[in-house]
Design a protein that fits this description.
The complex is a heterodimer. Chain A is mostly helical. Helices cover about 70% and strands about 0% of the residues of chain A. Chain A has a single domain, classed as Fumarate Reductase Cytochrome B subunit (Up-down Bundle). Chain A is globular, with a radius of gyration of 19 Å. Chain A starts with 16 loop residues before the first helix and ends with a helix. In chain A, helix 1 runs antiparallel to helix 2 and helix 5 runs antiparallel to helix 7. Chain A contains eight helices and no strands. By secondary structure, chain B is of the alpha+beta class. Helix content of chain B is about 25%, strand content about 20%. In chain B, a hairpin with a 2-residue loop joins strand 6 and strand 7. Classes of the chains: A mainly alpha, B alpha+beta. Chains A and B meet through helix 1, helix 2 and helix 7 of A and helix 4 and helix 5 of B. Chain A: Keywords: Cell membrane, Membrane, Transmembrane, Transmembrane helix. Chain A: This is Cytochrome B. Chain A: It is a multi-pass membrane protein. Chain A: One of its GO terms (molecular function) is heme binding. Chain A: It is found in: Cell membrane.
Chain lengths: ~200, ~260
């Protein structure tokens, strides 16, 4: 299944095909979920702020709900695929561990000074490991809290775990903000290290 | 915060169409422009806004198909024995929010003297029900959370006849697919039989220990803590048991039909 090379010869595929497909499906699903979610949020804002209508998806609440509950299948299916391949192949442990707060801090300082080396793309630095693990975990939290908002009676255990329906709303919102932060940082990093973009398309 | 659906849910149709035409016009070749814009519907524009997909109708159809698929998934997930949480009286939301597709002053005033609930379709006993007769049936009460499709929720206390008891009493065909409701405010909706038979589904006649007030749906509301607010009809005038999906006021405009939680 996984074409992930344990060692990296010069022509090696850095990002295997399944990973690239999964990445771009996510790049489609996340804006659909976020844009429609913002319109749903605007129907009954949790806080004093509303999302500008221009950046939302769906036009009206009913349209936004249709987008949200359609794109959720893409996000969830793709997420399950990504997690399964990563766990079964052991890639999760090879690529993302070890990771430590101290290591993340050290690499973040190097990065801010412009001294972080990017010459082995097959190896994630500590900041990347932490960021990608965070994004994965955050998406799991978004999916779980979303299930509670969708089906608070049917998924009672999950609902109680999150502290009830209203608490799940808050969790869903905060997790969305954090994911938006990740996406923003991710896009800035691609702009700063642009050679990673063709690599995520062609694989090498 | 809760608000009337009139403000929140529907964009101003005219201004949206105008905006969309302005945005789309430069992208279309001259000869085809007129025909395309001529067939541009509000629904299509709604789907278009915020993204650059340029076949609104197809997108709209695909989204509607997925919504119907989601109806089936929800029917499958629905556990007839799973109960919604109930709450102590201290947790009731006061005042309980008014919510409808019109303002509170426009809520219909139904006259009890001339009222009888119409029952039709796949039922053995089609006679009408006066409020006094319904009040004479065994009553139950529950404090549950009402969840609006907009996201907000509020806890309220409803009492009335267990709907499954009522359906048995009128000899309803509980193997049928749907129950449809027609309301005094011209609202209409429908539910699946499994939800109709759920033990917490009430033909609510009271709110917070008093006769159901006009703003909460006098003379009766179908209260289902397993469904979103728009699936809970108020001011019910008639109900019917059927095997063809009767749709609903919001559902026909794009809200998910099952709308369960």
């Amino acid at each position: 299944m996984s074409a992930d090379p344990p060692t990296s010869p010069s022509s090696a595929v850095v990002y295997p095909r399944w990973l690239r497909i999964s990445h771009w499906l996510n790049a489609l699903a996340v804006p659909l979920m976020m844009g429609s979610g913002w319109r749903i949020y605007d129907a009954a804002p949790l806080f004093a702020v509303s999302i500008p209508r221009e950046v939302t998806l769906g036009g009206w609440l009913g349209g936004a709900l249709q987008w949200h509950f359609a794109a959720m299948w893409l996000l969830a299916g793709n997420g399950l695929f990504y997690l399964t391949v990563n766990l079964v192949g052991g890639r999760l442990f090879r690529r993302f561990f070890p990771v430590s707060p101290r290591g993340v801090l050290a690499d973040a300082v190097l990065a801010l000074r412009g001294r972080l080396r990017h010459d082995d793309p097959g190896r994630y630095n500590q900041v990347q490991r932490a960021a990608y693990l965070f994004a994965t975990l955050d998406l799991v939290v978004l999916a779980m809290s979303g299930l509670v908002l969708w089906k608070s009676v049917q998924f009672a255990v999950l609902r109680d775990l999150l502290g009830g329906y209203e608490a799940a709303r808050l969790v869903h919102f905060v997790a969305m903000v954090l994911l938006a932060g990740f996406v923003a940082l991710h896009l800035v990093m691609v702009a700063l290290v642009p050679r990673t973009l063709p690599r995520m398309i062609r694989g090498r | 915060m809760p608000r009337p659906k009139t403000d929140a849910a529907r964009p101003d149709a005219g201004s949206i169409l105008k905006e969309a035409r302005k945005l789309l016009a430069p992208r279309l070749a001259e000869p085809s422009r007129r025909t395309f814009l001529g067939s541009l519907t509000l629904g299509g524009v709604a789907m278009l806004s915020g993204c650059s997909l340029n076949d609104g109708d197809q997108v709209e159809r695909a989204l509607a198909a997925i919504s119907r698929f989601n109806d089936r998934v929800q029917g499958w997930i629905f556990d007839p024995d799973a109960l919604a949480p109930t709450y102590p009286a201290a947790m009731i939301t006061r005042p309980f929010p008014f919510n409808a597709f019109y303002g509170i002053d426009e809520a219909p005033a139904v006259d009890e003297a001339g009222y009888a609930l119409e029952v039709s379709g796949l039922v053995a006993d089609k006679r009408g029900w006066r409020l006094g007769e319904l009040r004479a049936l065994p009553q139950v009460e529950q404090i549950t959370r009402h969840i609006c499709v907009e996201g907000w929720s509020a806890i309220g206390r409803w009492g009335g006849v267990r709907f499954s008891d009522f359906l048995k009493r009128v000899g309803a065909d509980t193997g049928a697919g749907y129950i449809g409701f027609k309301c005094a405010d011209d609202y209409y909706t429908s539910i699946d039989m499994a939800t109709a038979l759920h033990p917490q589904t009430l033909l609510a006649l009271t709110y917070d220990g008093r006769v159901l007030p006009r703003e909460y749906g006098f003379p009766m509301k179908l209260r289902m803590p397993t469904k979103l607010g728009y699936k809970n009809p108020k001011h019910i005038r008639a109900l019917f048991v059927t095997n063809s999906n009767p749709g609903g006021y919001w559902e026909d405009q794009g809200y998910n039909w099952f709308g369960g939680s």
